[in-house]
Design goal:
Layout (H helix, E strand, L loop, with lengths): L1 H5 L5 E8 L4 H10 L6 H10 L12 H7 L3 E6 L2 E8 L2 E9 L3 E10 L2 H35 L2
Antiparallel strand pairs: 1-5, 2-3, 3-4, 4-5
Helix pairs in contact: 2-5
Amino acid sequence: MLLDDVLPEWDFRERHAVVVDADEADLLRAVDELTWREVPVFRGLMRVRSLRRVDLAPDQRVLAGMTAGGFVVLGRSPEEIVFGIERAGVSIAGNFRYDGSALTTETRVRAIDDRSRRRFRAYWLVIRGPSGLIRREWLRAVVARAQRSV
């Protein structure tokens, strides 16, 4: 798994999955092509979270928008896309992976020191619920897009 290569050790982790019978190429293409219009909760929470006005045009691709915002695609394979960012003392990496029966998304966070770990822990207590909501919506939208393309 590419995510293991990118961030093998972590302090915080969240994983979500949805069982789906689909072609992995269709699913990973859907991850790339998914637009903000298809994930309204995610889009709304991103706007609330931002201290400045962010342009999340409904037809803009989510992954492209995230990379424009500082995330980087760190790896790709036929069954996985990994993306990440370095922020204020933490490394964050996430993925979408299809294993033949389930599409998963996992987020891992690694702090560089105890102070960063304590600060992120407080942030994680606040953001973990909305983050899980975002990930579940994102998974459902990816599957719906992939199934429409068949």
